[in-house]
Amino acid sequence: MLQDYQNALQLMQQGKYEKARVLFEKLSRDGSPEILERCRVYLTVCERNSKESSLSFKSSEEQYDYAVSLLNTGSYEEARDQFEAILGKAPQADFAHYGMALLSSVTGQAEEALEHLSRAIELNPSNRIQARSDPDFVDMADDPRFTELLYPETS
To answer: In the predicted model, what is the mean pLDDT of residues 41-62?
Structure first.
Protein backbone atom coordinates (compact mmCIF):
# COMPACT_ATOMS: atom_id res chain seq x y z
CA MET A 1 0.00 0.00 0.00
CA LEU A 2 2.79 2.44 0.86
CA GLN A 3 4.40 1.81 -2.53
CA ASP A 4 1.10 2.54 -4.30
CA TYR A 5 0.77 5.75 -2.30
CA GLN A 6 4.29 6.86 -3.21
CA ASN A 7 3.72 5.97 -6.87
CA ALA A 8 0.47 7.93 -6.91
CA LEU A 9 2.18 10.97 -5.38
CA GLN A 10 4.98 10.76 -7.92
CA LEU A 11 2.52 10.50 -10.82
CA MET A 12 0.62 13.50 -9.50
CA GLN A 13 3.84 15.54 -9.21
CA GLN A 14 4.66 14.62 -12.81
CA GLY A 15 1.28 15.91 -13.94
CA LYS A 16 -0.04 12.44 -14.78
CA TYR A 17 -3.28 13.08 -12.96
CA GLU A 18 -5.40 10.39 -14.58
CA LYS A 19 -2.93 7.62 -13.66
CA ALA A 20 -2.54 9.01 -10.15
CA ARG A 21 -6.31 9.22 -9.80
CA VAL A 22 -6.68 5.50 -10.46
CA LEU A 23 -4.18 4.67 -7.70
CA PHE A 24 -5.73 7.12 -5.23
CA GLU A 25 -9.17 5.64 -5.90
CA LYS A 26 -7.83 2.19 -5.09
CA LEU A 27 -6.13 3.48 -1.95
CA SER A 28 -9.25 5.33 -0.79
CA ARG A 29 -11.10 2.00 -0.89
CA ASP A 30 -8.40 -0.36 0.36
CA GLY A 31 -5.81 1.89 2.02
CA SER A 32 -4.87 2.14 5.65
CA PRO A 33 -6.78 4.57 7.87
CA GLU A 34 -3.63 6.70 8.31
CA ILE A 35 -3.56 7.72 4.64
CA LEU A 36 -7.26 7.49 3.80
CA GLU A 37 -8.07 11.20 4.23
CA ARG A 38 -4.96 12.29 2.32
CA CYS A 39 -5.86 9.96 -0.54
CA ARG A 40 -9.31 11.52 -0.75
CA VAL A 41 -7.83 15.02 -0.89
CA TYR A 42 -5.31 14.04 -3.57
CA LEU A 43 -8.07 12.25 -5.47
CA THR A 44 -10.02 15.51 -5.62
CA VAL A 45 -6.90 17.34 -6.84
CA CYS A 46 -6.35 14.74 -9.55
CA GLU A 47 -9.96 14.86 -10.69
CA ARG A 48 -9.87 18.64 -10.90
CA ASN A 49 -6.59 18.73 -12.79
CA SER A 50 -7.64 15.93 -15.13
CA LYS A 51 -10.72 17.92 -16.05
CA GLU A 52 -8.74 21.14 -16.52
CA SER A 53 -6.06 19.53 -18.62
CA SER A 54 -8.72 18.14 -20.96
CA LEU A 55 -9.85 21.68 -21.77
CA SER A 56 -8.46 23.14 -24.94
CA PHE A 57 -9.03 26.58 -26.36
CA LYS A 58 -8.59 27.86 -29.89
CA SER A 59 -7.48 31.27 -28.63
CA SER A 60 -6.70 33.25 -25.50
CA GLU A 61 -9.96 35.11 -26.05
CA GLU A 62 -11.90 31.84 -25.92
CA GLN A 63 -10.08 30.89 -22.71
CA TYR A 64 -10.90 34.36 -21.33
CA ASP A 65 -14.61 33.82 -22.05
CA TYR A 66 -14.42 30.52 -20.17
CA ALA A 67 -12.65 32.21 -17.24
CA VAL A 68 -15.32 34.91 -17.09
CA SER A 69 -18.03 32.25 -17.03
CA LEU A 70 -16.23 30.62 -14.09
CA LEU A 71 -16.02 33.99 -12.37
CA ASN A 72 -19.72 34.60 -12.91
CA THR A 73 -20.62 31.26 -11.33
CA GLY A 74 -18.43 31.88 -8.29
CA SER A 75 -15.68 29.42 -9.25
CA TYR A 76 -13.01 31.93 -8.30
CA GLU A 77 -10.00 29.64 -7.99
CA GLU A 78 -10.68 28.01 -11.34
CA ALA A 79 -11.18 31.44 -12.92
CA ARG A 80 -7.88 32.60 -11.43
CA ASP A 81 -6.14 29.53 -12.89
CA GLN A 82 -7.48 30.38 -16.35
CA PHE A 83 -6.57 34.08 -16.19
CA GLU A 84 -3.08 33.18 -14.93
CA ALA A 85 -2.67 30.66 -17.74
CA ILE A 86 -3.51 33.34 -20.31
CA LEU A 87 -1.05 35.76 -18.71
CA GLY A 88 1.58 33.03 -18.62
CA LYS A 89 1.31 32.68 -22.40
CA ALA A 90 0.60 36.33 -23.19
CA PRO A 91 1.70 38.75 -20.43
CA GLN A 92 0.57 41.69 -22.58
CA ALA A 93 -3.04 40.44 -22.82
CA ASP A 94 -4.89 43.49 -21.51
CA PHE A 95 -8.17 41.55 -21.31
CA ALA A 96 -6.61 38.96 -18.99
CA HIS A 97 -5.32 41.73 -16.69
CA TYR A 98 -8.82 43.21 -16.76
CA GLY A 99 -10.26 39.79 -15.85
CA MET A 100 -7.80 39.44 -12.96
CA ALA A 101 -8.82 42.93 -11.80
CA LEU A 102 -12.49 41.88 -11.83
CA LEU A 103 -11.73 38.69 -9.94
CA SER A 104 -9.63 40.53 -7.38
CA SER A 105 -12.35 43.13 -6.90
CA VAL A 106 -15.15 40.62 -6.29
CA THR A 107 -12.94 38.64 -3.89
CA GLY A 108 -12.00 41.72 -1.89
CA GLN A 109 -8.35 41.99 -2.96
CA ALA A 110 -8.19 45.73 -3.63
CA GLU A 111 -4.42 46.02 -4.08
CA GLU A 112 -4.32 43.25 -6.65
CA ALA A 113 -7.39 44.65 -8.40
CA LEU A 114 -5.75 48.06 -8.72
CA GLU A 115 -2.49 46.57 -10.02
CA HIS A 116 -4.20 44.51 -12.72
CA LEU A 117 -6.61 47.26 -13.70
CA SER A 118 -3.77 49.74 -13.96
CA ARG A 119 -1.87 47.34 -16.22
CA ALA A 120 -4.98 46.65 -18.33
CA ILE A 121 -5.49 50.38 -18.85
CA GLU A 122 -1.81 50.90 -19.63
CA LEU A 123 -2.00 48.19 -22.31
CA ASN A 124 -5.38 49.33 -23.67
CA PRO A 125 -6.76 52.71 -22.55
CA SER A 126 -10.32 51.74 -23.54
CA ASN A 127 -10.35 49.49 -20.46
CA ARG A 128 -10.66 52.70 -18.40
CA ILE A 129 -13.99 53.48 -20.04
CA GLN A 130 -15.23 49.92 -19.63
CA ALA A 131 -14.27 49.83 -15.94
CA ARG A 132 -16.21 53.02 -15.22
CA SER A 133 -19.50 51.23 -15.82
CA ASP A 134 -18.57 47.69 -14.81
CA PRO A 135 -20.75 46.59 -11.86
CA ASP A 136 -18.06 44.16 -10.66
CA PHE A 137 -16.01 47.15 -9.51
CA VAL A 138 -18.78 48.56 -7.30
CA ASP A 139 -16.88 47.60 -4.13
CA MET A 140 -13.91 49.64 -5.32
CA ALA A 141 -15.90 52.85 -5.89
CA ASP A 142 -15.03 54.35 -2.49
CA ASP A 143 -11.29 53.81 -2.94
CA PRO A 144 -9.69 57.11 -4.02
CA ARG A 145 -6.97 55.21 -5.90
CA PHE A 146 -9.65 53.54 -8.00
CA THR A 147 -11.33 56.86 -8.75
CA GLU A 148 -7.97 58.41 -9.65
CA LEU A 149 -7.22 55.50 -11.98
CA LEU A 150 -10.56 55.76 -13.78
CA TYR A 151 -10.83 59.55 -13.84
CA PRO A 152 -7.25 60.88 -14.08
CA GLU A 153 -8.44 64.08 -15.69
CA THR A 154 -10.13 65.18 -12.44
CA SER A 155 -7.10 64.71 -10.21
So the answer is: 80
86 and 121 fall within a common domain: yes
Tell me the C-alpha distance between 29 and 51, whole Å. 22
Q: Which of 37-41, 47-51, 110-114 has the lowest mean pLDDT?
A: 47-51
CA distances from 98 to 58, 104, 115, 139, 151 (A): 20, 10, 10, 16, 17
Rounded Cα gap, residues 5 and 99, in angstroms: 38
Whether 94 and 140 share a structural domain: yes
Give, as one character, the DSSP assignment of residue 31: S
Residues 76, 149: one domain?
yes
What region does 57 belong to: left with phi over 0, alpha with psi -120 to 50, or beta?
A: beta
